[in-house]
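Researcher: Can you fold this with magnesium ion in place?
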Amino acid sequence: MTPSQPRLECRVLDERLRDVMPAYATQGSAGMDLRALLDAPLTLSPGDCELVRTGLAIHIADPNLAGMILPRSGLGHKHGIVLGNLVGLIDADYQGELMISVWNRGQRPFTVEPLTRLAQYVVVPVVQVALDVVDDFTPSERGAGGFGSTGAR
Ligand SMILES: O=c1ccn([C@H]2C[C@H](O)[C@@H](COP(=O)(O)OP(=O)(O)OP(=O)(O)O)O2)c(=O)[nH]1
Ligand SMILES: [Mg+2]
């Protein structure tokens, strides 16, 4: 832990999580893994999407931070287990349980065992902005070009 590391309040909503709290796996890890709080194995057929409990609530509180729930690359690439919402965005004022929308986008059934590390939680900086309504912008180099306007190579 570095001295400047922000501290976030976390409620443990299920005692099963006590011994397996999320942690950074290495010094340079960007995310900490979230486990599936399940009473029994959960088999997802191809195309199935289920909301899975994590047993944890994290109150970020600081509006200049947000949480993100992201897939784990091994599960996503090897097994097609990703998120039903693609990315979960956790508001700084959210105090409820972190939930994982798990989606089997693959072609084979996949069984999630209880307390499997299913997704990862990343805290990112956020800037809240104010919008000034204008009629026109000062021209930029890109202008309204997008969606491949700069070419493929
Ligand atoms: O994967 C996720 C995504 C969201 N949330 C929680 C935290 C987040 O702060 C809240 C609302 O998420 P979001 O704003 O993305 O959903 P919404 O459909 O816009 O709901 P709301 O009307 O409550 O904002 O739901 C999760 O637990 N897991
Ligand atoms: Mg919302």
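Model: Folded with magnesium ion in place. Residues 69, 85, 88-91, 94, 98-99, 101 surround deoxyuridine-5'-triphosphate (ligand 1) (CB under 6 Å).
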